[in-house]
Each structure stands twice: as C-alpha cells, then as structure tokens.
Amino acid sequence: xxxxxxxxxxxxxxxxxxxxxxxxxxxxxxxxxxxxxxxxxxxxxxxxxxxxxxxxxxxxxxxxxxxxxxxxxxxxxxxxxxxxxxxxxxxxxxxxxxxxxxxxxxxxxxxxxxxxxxxxxxxxxxxxxxxxxxxxxxxxxxxxxxxxxxxxxxxxxxxxxxxxxxxxxxxxxxxxxxxxxxxxxxxxxxxxxxxxxxxxxxxxxxxxxxxxxxxxxxxxxxxxxxxxxxxxxxxxxxxxxxxxxxxxxxxxxxxxxxxxxxxxxxxxxxxxxxxxxxxxxxxxxxxxxxxxxxxxxxxxxxxxxxxxxxxxxxxxxxxxxxxxxxxxxxxxxxxxxxxxxxxxxxxxxxxxxxxxxxxxxxxxxxxxxxxxxxxxxxxxxxxxxxxxxxxxxxxxxxxxxxxxxxxxxxxxxxxxxxxxxxxxxxxxxxxxxxxxxxxxxxxxxxxxxxxxxxxxxxxxxxxxxxxxxxxxxxxxxxxxxxxxxxxxxxxxxxxxxxxxxxxxxxxxxxxxxxxxxxxxxxx
Length: 523
Description:
Keywords: Chaperone, Hydrolase, Nucleotide-binding
Strand order of the largest sheet: 7-6-8-5-9-10-11
Helix content: 25-40%
Distance between the termini: 63 Å
InterPro entries: CobW-likC_sf (IPR036627), CobW-like_C (IPR011629), CobW/HypB/UreG_nucleotide-bd (IPR003495), P-loop_NTPase (IPR027417), Zinc-reg_GTPase_activator (IPR051316)
Largest sheet: 7 strands, parallel
Shape: elongated
Mean pLDDT: 75
Structural class: alpha/beta
Low-confidence stretches: 156-172, 181-200, 352-426
Strand content: 15-25%
Protein name: COBW domain-containing protein 1 (Cobalamin synthase W domain-containing protein 1)
Organism: Durusdinium trenchii
Number of helices: 14
C-alpha cells in the first residue's frame, strides 16, 4: 500500500462494469495499487495517467490497446460527471475512489525490434519446370547439415505433390515441410491473368507464420527456403514480404535465386502468352537477385554464351553463376542481403551508371534485384496500367525505346547486343550525381515516377541512396511495383562527397524524361 504524502493524493481506480477489460488489467487489485497524483493536477491529468498505465501494461503483455477515458466521477457521488479542467482537490481526498468509463480498442501489435542482419533469412528458389530447382534444394540440404532449414513448397497447379512422397524425400534433411496447394484450375487461371503487382500471397504469409509459431514454441531454425513451382511469378512473393510487417519484423528476404536451364530457357522466354498474362520464365529472370545457369553439360559453348547473353539482356544486375546439377559454392546461395536496406550503402551501382552514361542512346537490360523507393516522398505509385491489365513482363518491340547497343556482364565485359523482340521488354538505368536533393522537389519527382503515363514506360523496381539537403544520413529506399520502404543508413562522413545513386528497372522507360526530372531535384 502506497503511503500518503502531503503534496499528493492517493486515489483508487474503478472501471465501470460495462467495460470489457484485458486480462492484464482485470487482474490488478487497484486498492493495493492506488494512483498517486500531485495536488495541483487536473482531472484530465488523472485521466491521462490512467490511460498511459493501461496502454503500457497491455503493450508489455502483448495485448496492446488504445484507451481513452470520456467520463470520470467520484464513487461517493456517481451522478456527477467531473469537469476535466477542474483540480483533483476540488473533488477528491486521499483514499477516495474514482470511477471511469471510456473507449478501449485493440491497438496495433507490438513488433520486435530486431536488426536486419540478426533476422532469420528467407530465400526464394525459383525457375521454370525442369530447370533443376529441387536438385539444387536437395544439394543445399545435404551440404548444410549443420543448419536447421525449413522448406515451403509452393504447389500451385492442378496436380498436387503427394505430401507423403515429399516428406519421404526431404524430411531427413529439412527441418520442416510446408506445402501450399490451391488444387483448383480456375483459381490458377485467375491468378495468372491477374495483375501481378496487385497480388498478395496470403497462403505464403500463413505458411511463414506457422513456422514462426513453431520457433516460438522452441523449435530451432536457421533459415527458410521457399521452392516455387515453375509456373510461379516471384513478384507476389516479394510483395508479400514487403507488406507483412509481422513477418518482416522477424524474417528478412535474403534474395531471389532463379535456376535457368541452359538447354531450354530460351524456348521458355519465347513462349507466347495470352493477353493480360505474364511469361513466368521471363519474370523469374527479370526479378531475381542471382541466376544459376544450370545444365551447362547439355549445351555447346556457343549455345551457353548465347543463353548467358540473353539472360544478361533481361537482367543487368544479377550475378550469373554457371552450374551442373546445381553444384555451386554454398556461399553463392546465402547471405545475399539483396533486400536489406541497411546493406544498400555497400552496393556499388556506379558500374551500371557508367554504362548508362557511356550509352546515352541506349542503356542495358534490366533487372529488379535493386529496387526501392521511399514512401515518405509520396511513395512509389502504381507504375502499371490503371486498369490492372498491364503485362508487367512484356513490352512491344520499340526501336526508340532506348534499349542499348551494349551491356556488361558481372565481370565488366562488354558484349554486342542481339536484336530481338524482347529488347524493350525490361529496361534499366542508373543515375549518379554529386550534390544535394531538395526535399520538396524530390517529393514531386517520386510522385511523378509513381504515376508515369504509359508512353513514358513502366517502372518495376527502384533502388537508391539519396543525399538529401540538410539531412545528415544517407537515405535509402526500395520499391517493388507499388510497394515501397525507406530508412536512414549511416551518416555522411565529414569530408565525404554527397552523391545520390539511383537505379530504375522497368519496361520501355523514357530515360531522357526520367533523367531530366532527376536533375531538376538538385540544389
């Protein structure tokens, strides 16, 4: 029991019986835990003290609420509602009980604050049918026996993998198997025809939450691998991560790895698709962070070179790793940190910028592994057709689209571009400029980029490091389609040049238009 003090009142709280209280509040005996309030406090001060107490306790107990008191009275005279502006001493003496009634609403969940590098990594493993994804997955599980790895099988089609067969093949190596299967042809058709940038995979989110629940119950786990079917577009999976705060609070998307079959990938890239659909093989190449050029033992060296150049035309940023039966260094398959904004300042995009400046009439094939854009500057808008019928993986051949005359592979070698109807489907451009961005103009620029009219192109992804005027930190941003995120990274060094670096990945981008508006943002 709190002893009374001459300069304070000790008052007992009573919640009106009609109020439904969280267990953490209902269990408190307020006679043993009275409120101590200064003599010069107002009734409103007492209300706020109770509100803060309730919100603090429920937050700490994992059942947060938002609480606002509308009515307070002295239980000795419950017919009189008190004026919030009155002094508490006008209505109470030490030992009195005050009654309260107000709105108590469920608040947002309290998410753990975990540094990105300490979150559990999630790898998306994708590739067309027969490319070698499952072989690669088994290789990873065999080689990393010291790690506890959970596997999510993304079964999306007419025929489901038999759960018992899957478990028999992989249970000895994988810590947990989660199978997702809609099993309905009509749903699959609707999914493929829908606008990919507007889709969230709720089944994936629930699968990840079920794994986290097991971790909470004591399961030991080091990594999660999502193996998609050949018909899966990676964009909705990436978008699911970026829009599920409870998942990203504990998991980090390490990267998207695409397995490309050197013998058959060109055929898949040339597949015709119905209007409004996407070429999944094309999307898998365009949006990945690392490419495994697999089954090299089944093609000639010239065929391998032709395939590699075609992949590079589509994706200018992902590292291409040669492989046979998925055998590569294990280090190539983990710790990519491709979607970790805190790592963006360590990514060198000057190489792409040099290409952009060297080939001002063109550019080079694009990729979505380095996207981003901060919501604080109006966010990344819907860089797609407003009717949601835009084919985000395709564009018609356009000789003036700005697609370049050359490109560089990950080693800096320059290769002659091959003319094809795919050349304008995905473009990329990197801009680098010293100086400081004006916040107001930057806001307008981002809004313009988010609302590009069709004739200016379609932006898939943005990734950048901004030098904003009067802002001491490097500001990083990341966006995939219409979903964006932003954060401050490390501070600018005392003598460090303030240089803004930004990469755009999209389709048939009007590069001159984007560069002009970019330059207009600087002081």
